[in-house]
Design goal:
alpha+beta
Length: 444
Amino acid sequence: MNSKIFRSSFFTAFLVLIAAIVFIMGILFDVFEKQIQREAATEAEYLARAVESEEADFLSEFNGTDRRITLIDADGDVLFDNQTNADALDNHAEREEIKQAMETGKGMSARYSKTLTEKTLYYAVKLSDSSILRVSTNQYTVVTILLGLLQPILVILVLALILTAVLSSKVSKAIIKPINELDLENPEKNEAYEELTPLLRKISKQKATINQQMSELKKKDNMRREFTANVSHELKTPLTSISGFAELMKNGDIPNETVTDFSKSIYDESQRLISLVNDIIKISELDEKSISLESESVDLYELSKEIIDRLTSEAKKNNVTLNLIGANAEIIGVRKILDEMIYNLCDNAIKYNKENGRVDIVLNSTEYRVYLTVRDTGIGIPKEHQSRVFERFYRVDKSHSKKVGGTGLGLAIVKHGAMYHNADVSLESTEGKGTSITVSFDKM
């Protein structure tokens, strides 16, 4: 690993050095080129004014200088050149800089030599008599400059390579040292540099996951124990009543009218026991997702209408009005489970309502979701109990629950049914004013 880090840092530093040299030379060449262009333009403007005031003979003073000065008439013929015999030169009318000067008063162009090692810059100015004064200067290309600087560049590169190798070796050793000193038993306590943070986080996360799984297993075990205890208690109550009444009837000392009452009590307790067992089975099936029923398209509006018909007589006994609000809303789900969810919500809303109360089933739809809300004008749920009402066998008011009946599993079935359909459940309640429970489903 040390050698890999060394190679990576070494080649990275080397490539950065090469890129920096190329970048700097490119910028400097561009700066120098623009400076030469400005100098040629300034010199051409200066010479043009001089020629205008002192005649063209003034240019003969620049014979043999580095700057090439050419005077061209309006037809493109060369009148003067300070480095070459003017008569030997071709017509310049088609030269790019001359054409520009003829049209706009000024022109500039650049041409490379055949070997591409030299570039000539031309700047032309149009005079008042329509003749053209041109100044040209030679400029080395990047290739020529690089060839000229090859030796010092190679020396710099060799020195840079040596320095890079030394520094890369020290850096790689410095990186490896904290890795070798890592405490993997306590990854969160390591004070490593940023590069090791993802590794340490992953190790720490794995340990946290294991601890969380152990905690969840313990929690599930506690829930199982609590559930077993609750089931035992809930089963014991009706069975004790049935056993007591049956024992009294077995002795034969009970009047006939009392036998009828006892029979009714035994029947009621048996029905309560059957409901409890059925609800326990439903919860277990939903927990294990062992229900073999297939999903289908279900219209929650039509299903709610059917449930209202079944609960109408129960609602009348409690002087509660049932209302269905909304429009057709189809989802994909198991009809039996959805029926039990809506039925339990409405049944609870009726049982825990007030005299002359109201229960509304409201259906709303958006582009992606379907919302089913069951709201009532009942006794409401105290705030401190709202987070637990969906737990199995949890009752806010045990005395009231005993009076209205029920198994204490209604809202637990709603919660597990929602989980089965990947739906969300939310509750809003104000004590003394009523409760609203909303289940939101994915739309078809």
